[in-house]
Design brief:
The chain has 368 residues and is mainly α. It folds into three domains: 1-37, no CATH class; 74-215, no CATH class; 216-307, no CATH class. Helices cover 64% and strands 5% of the residues. The chain contains 14 helices and three strands. Strands 1-3-2 form a three-stranded antiparallel sheet, with no helix packed on it. Helix 3 (105-121) crosses helix 5 (142-155). The chain starts with a strand and ends in a 7-residue tail after the last helix.
Amino acid sequence: TLQNVTISPSENCTSPDFCWTEGNVTWTLKNITETEYISKCQHLFANSDLPDLAIGLILLALSLLVLCSCLVMIVKLLNSVLKGQVASVIKKTINTDFPFPFTWLAGYLAMLAGAGMTFVVQSSSVFTSAITPLVGIGVISIERSYPLTLGANIGTTTTAILAALASPGSTLKYSLQIALCHFFFNISGIILFYPIPYTRLPIRMCKTLGNVTAQYRWFAIFYLLVCFFLLPLFVFGLSLAGWAVLLGVCLPLFALFIAVVVINIMQKRRPEKLPEKLQNWDFLPIWMHSLEPWDNIIMASLAFCGKHCCGFCKCCKVNAEQEGAKDKQIKTTEVYENTMAMADEERGGRRAAAVASVDKTGTNNTAL
């Protein structure tokens, strides 16, 4: 719309014919654009008076609930579908290696399959979330899921490359550069941690964390909180104090961590090379080299939950074992097609017996 507006005397008029002065004010005619919203956007909180922070927290809680529910249902569905001959065929197909001397080729083909599947679904999270329960029920081995995950990390870079190629010509160079940085970063990770079998540290690390979590269920939550929240916040806080403070604190801690790892390896493989005092961690307080005291404290704090403890408390474990024994008696009279699941149950029973013997004797010497 064309409207009368005031301008400063030093500003040029849009047209001398449409400028006039009234006292100390100069007027002119200008086209003014105004936007009038005649309807609201239709969404979940369109008519809500909640602030953005409250709406964001609600959506965060809902998204986490939906995500966890979907993962649980995926595991339940795969457990019900992959039984008997289906599980055997899938296990033989995915975990089969090529004959010697081409055994090494199977892992790289698994990478290509993981990259291709991730490129199709355009999300590495979806692909890894799908293969994780397959590893849990024994269909895919950990050694085979590792190259599949590495391939998914390569496939997910295609999303950034496609987005970079869709950029305008003025920014195509820089957007493609950062997309290729993402690609070669993941390629470098594969080169470091896969070609040589000895460098496949993530496989050994995941088995160690899995064994600890199987014995102490709360350790999974503790691991997530420390690695993804507390440790990054700690490093970020030190970085705000300056490089001198960051290096002065992190370097000694990193050196201590490396020393502990080296001593642990020496204790397992060459204990005679170490001084007598360092051949085990018994010289330290038990809470520094064993999770058993921490487990007792956490279980005692959760003792009030009774039957609604979701399997964390000792009382629930006893009830679960009793119910499991009853179910096992019933299953002996039925045909159970999934032989792998039966083997897992037997191994779980032996593991529970081993844990019980540790509780009775009170000797737990887990490395720091």
